[in-house]
Amino acid sequence: MSAETTKTNADQTKAGDAAQPEMIATGVDREIVTSNQRVFGGSLGLVVATLCILYTTFHIAVMNLYPLEPWVYRLIHVAGGLALGFLLFGARSLPDSGAESPLSLIEKALLLVGGAALLLATGQLLLMWSASDLITTGSPPAKHLTTFGYPLIAGTVIALIASWMAPQRNKNFLSPADTLLALAALTVGLYIILHADFLRTRAQVFPHPNDMWASIAGIILILELTRRLAGLALVIIVGAFLAYGFVGPWLPGVLNHRGYVPARFFAFIYTDNGILGPTTAISSTYIILFITFAAFLQASRVGEYFVNFAFAAAGGARGGPAKVAVFASGLMGMINGTSAGNVVSTGSLTIPLMKKVGYKPQTAASVEAAASSGGQILPPIMGAGAFIMAEITGIPYRDIVIAAIIPAALYFLSVYFMVDKEALKKGMKGLPRNELPEFRVLARRAFLFIPIIILIGALFMGYSVIRAGTLSMGAAAVVSWLTPHRMLVKEILYALEIAARMSLQLVAVCAAAGIIVGVIALTGIGVRFSSLLLGFAGQSQFLALLFAMLVAIILGMGMPTTAAYAVAAAVIAPGLIRMGIEPLTAHFFIFYYAVMSAITPPVALAAYAGAAIAQSDPMKTSVESFKIGLAAFVVPFMFFYSAPMLMQGHWLDILHVFVTALFGIYLMTSAVQGWMFGPLNRALRVLTLAGALGMIAGGWTSDIVGLSVATIVFAIQKGLLTPKNAARGLD
């Protein structure tokens, strides 16, 4: 969606909402619906929508009613996601019109050859299955190689080339090349499912050549869908890791390894040590579960109520739309787990309204980007981050959520202080009350918070994450019956449909991250990298953390948080833990910087998404979003030096750390914005920042220093102390 289109939609939303004050946030819902409209029209659109519904329903049913063997479930998850992804998202964007573009002779030839090869491979697989002539451990290397392995890889590559060369897709027809890629994805998945010993033993010892070609075809398909949905950054990183698997014998020092034959290397990658490992385990359970929950909130319009409630509560305050963005974007970002996607959905409303009350376009976009990214550190869902961390570390989910409370509170309060001080500096007002929903009316619908309350309550009562998420989905449908927007079968089917489409990016990204995890597991580079980290930092945990911060941010640039954290945790966390850092602290540290890479220049995806809506300069927006989210770059060092920040220790210590850190965060935002009780000159800003760092440190001595500095600045601003006397007092 272009920035111009987004702006037009947002402006139309704003105009319409003025006439309907109780529904000011409906623009968010309209924008999400627009972005989720069916790609295809007519009966084809219904067929593809049905496939999406079946994909989501399969996951919910397996998670709750009919469990499958994990590796079978994950294979269906990946293969089905790839097939749907190729059908829905072409190699090139859709045209505005439905006019057909003729295929060239070369394109026709590629489709003919590629299609024949893939049909041969698929037919041979089905024949092998029906005749019980599957490839077993010890089968001759040439068995079915010319009728399955070679045609599968050749057809996949040819179809991929054809998809790149093909004209823009027609909305009334499936792209032939993408249909062939979908067929290839299903064939790869079915081959591995049918050959159970592939995963259990063969792939890690003596894989058959067909195993290798099926794995290579699957990896190519994963990387291509990742390129289409998440850009080139992750594809390039995965390519570098794959290359490392072969060039390692010629690399020096800790990067050296003995090398691997291609068959074992690629087959190993497509096992539960790699693609089907922890990252896909998360995407096939927690991620798709909470994306479906978010879809139910959207289809029932309960999510819209959250935004309306925020506008009613804070829209009239100074800089009101920015404060609404902090609350609403954080809440929705916590659920849907994608920073840039959340910016596009909620930002289509909040960014134009922020501009309306006086925020510069880049500031409006930056606030939205910072709040949306922060949603992924907000408990209890943390954009599925809490569940990923629990899966990787073995730390109970409940402990992770409790530990996340204070850091998340500090981050969102710091963003709130930032927007409030910006409003103070510019003398901004809020939105007129007649353009806002009535709080009294919305307060009577507070029961619409029940799905969130049920989710949190069920999790803390000991219910499984899957059961809690499913109950919350049902609650969203039930409470909608108490509003004019009742969720009927049609709306439920729509929620299941958009849940599948919303999840496809993360299916591809998690599978791609699994490739990296597999290479790390096979080559042992994680252990050697940990040794390198230890050697680089010596005995200094601080240097090790600085190094870990840089690696997590660099890995996260251009990557969704899920993939960035999973990869960074595999590479960095073991080294930090070996240095004596607690596992919970180490993983939280890495997770925070993986999340904040979305607003870190020069590649800040969330900030770029906001800039497109605000029509501001992307680089300036990313720099300002970094400034607004600055607390998130400080908080990890705070909880490293002070365990009570993660709810570890006596409650008095926890309270002390929270209060002093909060005051320190307030001083830091004052220094950054140049405003405390009035404008701060350069000297006072430096002094205030020094006081902030003292308060953030967490010790009693540093707290006294910080309070003293704050008192001096306050006295100067109130005219109780002149700068000359202040300087003499400091001496």
Q: Can you describe this structure?
A:
This protein is mainly α. Among the domains are: 3-33 and 283-504, no CATH class; 68-236, no CATH class; 671-731, no CATH class. Helix content is 73%, strand content 0%. The chain has 35 helices and no strands. Helix 5 runs parallel beside helix 7 (176-194), helix 16 (361-374) runs antiparallel to helix 19 (405-426) and helix 33 packs antiparallel against helix 34. The longest helix is centred in the C-terminal third of the chain and has 35 residues, at 489-523. The radius of gyration is 27 Å and the shape is globular. The N and C termini lie far apart (59 Å).
- How many DSSP H or I helices? 35
What percent of the residues sit in helical stretches (DSSP H or I)? over 70%
Indicate the low-confidence ranges by residue numbers.
1-37, 726-731
- Major β-sheet profile: none
Concise summary:
This protein is an all-alpha fold. Among the domains are: 3-33 and 283-504, no CATH class; 68-236, no CATH class; 671-731, no CATH class.
State the main characteristics.
mainly alpha, 73% helix, disordered C terminus, 0% strand, 731 residues, single chain, disordered N terminus
